[in-house]
């Protein structure tokens, strides 16, 4: 647990499920001000970039510019719509703890907020990433079921030693997914929605690949945690996640476990390429 998180948690030791009190009244004026800066910056960027489900979810939630949201009020709204809750955690929690929460429709959200002098730097998911990025999509019944299935699937994948394969599905959907709408490509992934630079890069930059989502292809694709993605996978429609939540991944793990992985920026002969990226961004970084 980080020092800031411990402080925000009032020094409590974590319970076995790692949940803590959000400690809402312990946020400082400076914490709320960081939230406001981030909220206003993202809210300007998202029209025309976030998918309709994200915008609608956000609109129906008690989330605004002026204060870090209270998880109890978020949970009330979520519970009515999709049966989810938001629970506070001090930062990253062990995989099995994370999956157990998701499988029970509890979303673990960091209770701390990043500091004002590092608005774009995150070591662990904070309240802005988790609440602004993830919670709006949890108001969507399809995403609500998909993330629960991911939690249940995670516990199973761990037993089968296939967690890396499953984690790639989460990464390229829940965190960095794009979806096609009639009016163009839109973001629904929380990692994009909560990042000002990546919400522009993922949709408007010539550098990354945009490839039609294919489950096996995604399971075989490594991802970057230190930079923007080199490839974004695009769903034809959000409802495609429903079928994905019902697939038994075990035979796929058995088949793909030995297969070579694709590099983050690779294009495969069988890909349905929506936009082949120039790769300029990552080439410049490597130089
Ligand atoms: N813990 N709080 C938190 N948030 C996450 O997104 C998270 C986590 N623990 C594990 C984890 N994610 C991932 O490694 C799994 O999805 C594989
Ligand atoms: Fe996340």
Would you give an account of this structure?
Helix content is 47%, strand content 10%. The protein has 287 residues and is α/β, with parallel strands linked by helices. The chain has a single domain (3-286), classed as Phenylalanine Hydroxylase. Strand 1 (85-89), helix 5 and strand 2 form a beta-alpha-beta unit. It starts with a helix and ends with a helix. The model is unreliable at 1-5 (pLDDT under 50). 7,8-dihydrobiopterin (HBI) binds at residues 89, 92-93, 95, 98, 108, 125, 167, 170.
Low-confidence runs of at least 5 consecutive residues? 1-5
Query: End-to-end distance, in Å?
Result: 35 Å
Radius of gyration: 18 Å
Bound molecule types: 7,8-dihydrobiopterin, fe (iii) ion
Q: Would you tell me the structural class of the helices and strands? A: alpha/beta
The CATH topology turns out to be Phenylalanine Hydroxylase
Estimate the mean pLDDT confidence. Answer: 94
Q: Strands, helices and their partners?
A:
Elements: H1 3-8, H2 29-45, H3 52-59, H4 71-82, E1 85-89, H5 95-103, E2 106-110, H6 127-138, H7 141-160, H8 163-175, E3 178-181, E4 184-187, H9 190-193, H10 196-204, E5 209-212, H11 215-219, E6 231-235, H12 240-246, H13 250-256, E7 273-275, H14 280-286
Parallel strand pairs: 1-2, 3-6, 5-6
Antiparallel strand pairs: 3-4, 5-7
The structure holds 7,8-dihydrobiopterin and fe (iii) ion.
